[in-house]
Amino acid sequence: MQAATLAGPGRLRLEEVALPEPGPGQVRLRLEGCGVCASNLTPWEGPEWMQFPTEPGALGHEGWGVVDALGEGVEGLRAGDRVAALSYKSYAEYDVADADAVVRLPDSLAGQPFPGEPLGCAMNIFRRSGIEAGQTVAIIGIGFLGAILTKLASDAGARVIAISRRPFSLDLARRMGAAEVIPMEDHHAIIARVKELTGGVFCDRVIEAVGKQWPLDLAAELTRERGRLIVAGYHQDGPRQVNMWLWNWRGLDVINAHERDPKVYMQGIREAVEAVASGRLDPSGLYTHRFPLARLDEALNATRDRPDGFLKALVTFR
């Protein structure tokens, strides 16, 4: 099979490698595609801790495809089942996953891409946010994740204030149900506008979905007394400082919404399958760029540079 290997900072190569064999309790997947995650960008840049070359297919963890082979003891799955998987070497034509880390996709989703991991991540973040009807919710950063959270929160009856840098993203937020949009330009102007919109009390819930210092600082400023600040951005480029005086004074609940328990991950993916299959959530318009595996480097660069109209890149195999 073909698999992508990161040869060095910003350098990709394709290799012909042997097909992986599923062990006991595992399945092999013939992948249809894999989403490109922003968490790949720091390894792509080549920090000191990164070791090159990577293993073939490494960093790809948003794969979906068809069960191709079963390991010993696997029950409830069969060859030919179309599934989303939580696996970790999916920048390749085949990958192996534990049988309890795949979710069968219904026939109604035939032909549709389904990067289960980020969709499940959105469902898990939404659940942990505790969003209810009548609340005011600010979402900072309207990319793929922020757009889905805007839809889920607005459908739950919350009043969503979307804050993002790009006009394209603000237009998208309105289409996903945001009641108000604010350009992410001036720190103090944003605070003043949210204060005005909320009668001076700020927001019941604030979701930071960028993964940078400034949006995290801003998120705390926008959270009301005894409100909940949800960290959904992936902060992997170094330590953060927080205004603990403000966090203490307002009595904030701070939720790090990144899941590490595989069972909870899978719960989110199953919820995402149900939401998309039922028509409650339609992510199809959020997959804005597609690349073959040989152009994974372009997909990573687009994820980094975010050209106009970009939300989510998929690497597709067939």
From TrEMBL:
Keywords per UniProt: Metal-binding, Oxidoreductase, Zinc
Transmembrane segments: none
UniProt cross-references to InterPro entries, sorted A to Z: ADH-like_C, ADH-like_N, ADH_Zn_CS, ER, GroES-like_sf, NAD(P)-bd_dom_sf
Any single Pfam family the record assigns to this protein: ADH_N
Cited SMART domains: PKS_ER
PROSITE patterns reported in the protein's UniProt record: ADH_ZINC (PS00059)
GO MF annotations, alphabetized: oxidoreductase activity, acting on the CH-OH group of donors, NAD or NADP as acceptor; zinc ion binding
Domain of life: Bacteria
Residue ranges annotated for the Enoyl reductase (ER) domain, each copy included: 10-231
SUPFAM superfamilies according to UniProt: GroES-like, NAD(P)-binding Rossmann-fold domains
Cofactor(s) it depends on: Zn(2+)
Similarity comment: family membership: Belongs to the zinc-containing alcohol dehydrogenase family.
UniProt-listed PANTHER family: D-GULOSIDE 3-DEHYDROGENASE, NAD-DEPENDENT ALCOHOL DEHYDROGENASE
Name of the protein: L-iditol 2-dehydrogenase
